[in-house]
Amino acid sequence: MQELQIIKTTDEEGKEVELKLLDIVNVDDIDYALLLPKDADPEADDAEVVLMRFKIENEEYIFETIDDDDEFDLVAQAIIDDAEENYKD
């Protein structure tokens, strides 16, 4: 299995966390990152994936939480639809 890129960011409590970058998806011309806690197994059925808005500003990676439920639902559904399309039997 390919080694996943590790991203360091700060959580809502100001604590530094390390996440594995699983994928970047684009929905309505906005990039979103699918991230997994560094110590989590991406193959596990109960793995909790984090979905964040992603952009690059001045060569720096910026990750933003998605506070709008409608935006989150739209992106999550696009990811599900894409996965279903790509992994048909």
Describe this structure in words.
This protein has a five-stranded antiparallel beta sheet. A hairpin with a 5-residue loop joins strand 1 and strand 2 (16-27). The chain contains one helix and five strands; from the N terminus they run E-E-E-E-E-H. It is globular, with a radius of gyration of 14 Å. Helices cover 20% and strands 44% of the residues. With 89 residues, it is α+β, with helices and mostly antiparallel strands.
End-to-end Cα distance: 21 Å
Q: Tell me the helix content.
A: 10-25%
Overall radius of gyration = 14 Å
Largest sheet: 5 strands, antiparallel
Strand order of the largest sheet: 1-2-3-4-5
Number of strands: 5
Q: Which ranges are low-confidence, i.e. pLDDT below 50, for 5 or more consecutive residues? A: none
Q: Structural class per helix/strand content? A: alpha+beta
Arithmetic mean of pLDDT? 85
Order of helices and strands: EEEEEH
Task: Categorize the overall geometry.
Answer: globular
Q: What share of residues are in beta strands?
A: 35-45%
Number of helices: 1
